[in-house]
Amino acid sequence: MEYINLLYIFSTVLLIIGLRKLSSPSSAAKGNIIAAVGMGLATVVAMFEPIEGDQGNYVLILLSLLIGTVVGLVFSKKVAMTAVPELVSLFNGFGGACAVAISIIEVMKFDEAVSMGARATTYLAMFIGGVAFTGSLIAYGKLSGKVKDWKSGISSYFNLIWLALCLGLMIYEVMFMGQVTYLPMLILVVSLIYGFTFVLPIGGADMPVVISLLNAFTGIAAALAGIVYGNMVMLLGGILVGSSGTILTVLMCNAMNRSLINVIIGGFGGSSASSAA
Amino acid sequence: MLEILDYLKDNVLTINLWIITIYLGFEIISKVPTVLHTPLMSGSNAISGIVIIGAIILVRQSSPEDYLSLVIGSVGIVLATINVVGGHAVTNRMLEMFKKK
């Protein structure tokens, strides 16, 4: 049982090969399956690897895995092919929510012995996961027509100030832990609101690019959570998604003849984009 | 500030891995054709569900009386599983459509 950790290496390799094959047309379907096998293997190893303070709880874990599998399969079978991007966005939001959930619990466990670096990592995971979560929900709402485009002249300034507020609160909490008891909760709320206001002004036509960006965010949140747990697959898989997702976002912008900055703060119509930039 | 630097110093290996993997991710994706943008986004979205491992470890470490951790942890597992399973399944559906054409 002690050697089961070594299987993590194998699943990391599968994820890398899967992603590589996904990016060329002839092998894409095979790549998806290889990546899925890598994920499955990593999940099994996570269930059985020896960890400190193991309490079991296997019934609960298996039940949760089962529910998630059934719901995921039903969602993916029922969706119309035209509605796939919004479903991907919804899935991505769920991944972000999971990063938020685990960082909430880890933040609650903090005591004086936890180093400043570990605290900073956990809060960053919470912030980035939170932005990916609410941002993806808004992107989902926009693509499915539930949320209307809304744009005001001050929204980009508001977002800059709000981002500074998020970062400021996090730095304060990391430097002076526990001085204000409700601060961790406040950081969570402020991060969730930032994800909302970040995506809201972006035009509906730019949503695929934004979803790709938020996907990269989820990857980074997973990588940060991987540092918190000292888990190499989470770390490597997360960074892999984070970096490839960022490049993919840039490529998608190029395909649309726009720049990423333009998509994020611009919000101009597609045709006027080049003259405005 | 010094404490942060100490933390970075203690994790040099991890930082090296970050840098190499970031470069690897860039290289893997840089030549993807436009038709594959959406399936690739969907597939890599499924991989970002790797955060599920964190939720599993969290639940394994929670004491059976600690209901808050158990509930939040299992909700995390459910959500991340939806991301992983649904993501791969929907990518598969998309790619099968390519094959027929």
TrEMBL record, chain B:
It catalyses: NAD(+) + NADPH + H(+)(in) = NADH + NADP(+) + H(+)(out). Keywords: Cell inner membrane, Cell membrane, Membrane, NAD, NADP, Translocase, Transmembrane, Transmembrane helix. It is found in: Cell inner membrane. Residues 17-100 form the NAD(P) transhydrogenase alpha subunit C-terminal domain. The chain crosses the membrane at residues 12-30, 42-61, 67-91. The keyword Transcription regulation does not apply. Pfam families: PNTB_4TM. The keyword Repressor does not apply. Its EC number is 7.1.1.1. InterPro entries: NADP_transhyd_a_C. It is a multi-pass membrane protein. PANTHER family: NAD(P) TRANSHYDROGENASE, PROTON-TRANSLOCATING NAD(P)(+) TRANSHYDROGENASE. The transhydrogenation between NADH and NADP is coupled to respiration and ATP hydrolysis and functions as a proton pump across the membrane. This is proton-translocating NAD(P)(+) transhydrogenase. It comes from Reichenbachiella agarivorans.
